[in-house]
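FORM 7B - TANDEM STRUCTURE REPORT

SECTION 1: FIRST PROTEIN
SEQUENCE AND TOKENS:
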Amino acid sequence: MRDKIPCLTLKEIYGSDYLQDLLKNKDSEVLTSGFHKKNISNPYLDGYLISANLNDIRLTYQEWKITSPFKIRVDHHTPLIKLQFELLGQSAYEGDDHQQIIIPSNHYQFIYNLTTHGFLNYSTHRKVLDIHLPYSYLEELLGSQGFSKLGVKALINKTNMTLFKSPLIISTDQELLIDQLTSHNYKADFAYDFLRCKANELILSAFVGANNALHQSPWSNQDIAILNAVRDYLKNNYQQDFHLQDLAKMFGINEYKLKNGFKALFSDTVFGYIRKMRLTVAHQMLLETPLEIKEIAYLTGFKYSHHFTKVYFDHFNKLPKESRKPIKLK
């Protein structure tokens, strides 16, 4: 059954064997946000790719709607060094040497391969952010923020394949950073500086998270699976009012594990996560819709517009009306 899944080349999927060359094509679009954009359409998927070169750092974000399962043959003869944030869907790599890298939805992983020869398997819709960077830059960045050389070596052993012990859960703050990276409205040099700053924040957060994960987690795999399911539910139902007791009953977990496990895994409380989800969606609605502020407040789960204004200001350090794009007169 597995052999029936078509095996494609990067060129068949993207139109080029190298993603950095893909964005140099005439049909790629240069965005004012600092990204280049390329639409992707073939019998297996529809989507797009945006990429930004920031000197030592290269950001690549992709959204795919997969119409038919497939696998891709990958052969890199030069070192592949990146952080991969799998926001939706799953990435499954199997090397010719039978090494495997599985990154589930809502998880991230660090990858350091001297050479890469194998297959990537895809069967579900996907959203993914990759941050490519040289090892020397990563080592210098971590060192500048207090990581000792021994601490860096504990996380990164320069062998043929280096990974964190296991894929790590993407935190609420990381979700917010990724959203800021991919949907900001800055332009020109400021856009470039903004992307570079946020990318560095995301890189540091990933290695701080990995460092913390070196310590034994008190939560079982079953607890983690349930807490992931809770977060997915909250992500899709953030407008509703919740009580911890009701959520605990809904997912068959006690309140202590729900409260403390959620905080430990996602670096945020249940209600802090809901608030950030509401504010993130409200921010996008302010940018992209003509709806009144009080209506946006209501649609995102805030009962009173004055409370929304206060919470929004505390989070973004500006009033909701200051996030509005100026209306262009015809």
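SECTION 2: SECOND PROTEIN
SEQUENCE AND TOKENS:
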Amino acid sequence: MKNRFLTIIIFSITIISTAYSQNLEGRYEGAVSRDGSIQLVNFDFIIEDGIQKGTYEIPENGSFDVPIDKIIMFKDTLNIKFYFGNFFCFLDEQKESLTGISEKWNPKIRLHVKKTTDKEKPYFKEDITFSNGDVKLSGMLYHPKNRIGQPVNYVVLVHGSGAQDRFSPYYISLGYSLVKNGFGVLLYDKRGTGLSSGNFEISSMEDLADDAVAALNYLNNKKDIKKSEIGFLGTSQGGWISPIAANKSKSCDFLILNVGPSVSVFEQDINRVEYSMKNDGWNQSSIDSTVLYTELYFQYARDNSPETWKRLDKFSKEIKSKDWVDYVNIPENKDDFEWWRLNDYNPETTLKSLKCRTLALFGEYDPLVPPKENETKMRDYLNSSGVEFEIRVIEGALHDMRTFQGLNGDNWNWPIVYWDWRVQPKAFINSMTQFLNKN
């Protein structure tokens, strides 16, 4: 009852004016722990335009400069939400430390960080704008401090699916990792997000590729920086978009496909269903049913036949009560197929037509772009293109290029068994830096 009462008090803070709150500024370094197992975490707190803000780092899993989702302060109490979830914290001003506990995890995650000296960023940041026709795109350029006055390779980061802007956690972390290793990076708000105009939800891959080309052209025309090579790094859906952009551009020197599929859009989603369910331990009968349904779903997307719709509608009603229904797309109406029809895309021809050197990276345990379904095709297509290329499968990695997390045994038998946190394999960033340094 006491814990519940405390939680109610903390959440009530959200409606109290920040005029009654103190400010939190500076860098705090420490760790999260779970029954003795730790992972280092750092925070940088700032006050911007009178508003409390901050970013976090989890170096081991490749998270850098990521905006904190929520910060609510009242006196010496702090409610903070970041990568590991919602935390209720106590600020000890005298010792300059922050201690907290997670809201939902069991066993709980405990947080303890202490104030330290500020850490200099490895980049100079420049806010930029550029255009693709009527679409106005906004973003930022990272210039590496460790390469001042030298020619630098610049990388245009191309987004994955969904609403992603320059501050999306994976996107900005990747930019930070690259600039820290001496490469310039252009990050931009996908059309319809952040400060960019347009609407990505009704745009084709060709449209999004044109946005990426506009970003590369902006870089190519920028005279106040020393450029060596310029190219694209496309992640996930960006692995379909960036090869299109590379072929449209006359000045693309390299291409990095980060968990980019070599299969078609429809085939990739069928793979997603099958491999995600396998990873989650479903029986083969359930997996077969979801794959069969998804194949019928895409058959209707292609043929738009009344007969196929009748079969699909009947099938979808039959599976709505199944435990695995969340793995598949259940249409509410026929308009739900418009995006799929707009993006009924197979990358084979595009990949066979590439003219720039290419690196393709896959995650060993990626259920969305499984190497088993993509690596051989990627190799065949790049061989046909005649370009210099490398393909690497990053050991232990999932789709976000981080490892699994969980107990490395059957029970909480410390110290023999302990919690394994998610980490980003060193081979991921190392593969890209080695590739980019080959110019």
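SECTION 3: OBSERVATIONS ON SECOND PROTEIN
Residues 265-342 form one domain.
The radius of gyration is 24 Å.

SECTION 4: SIGNATURE
Preparer initials: ____
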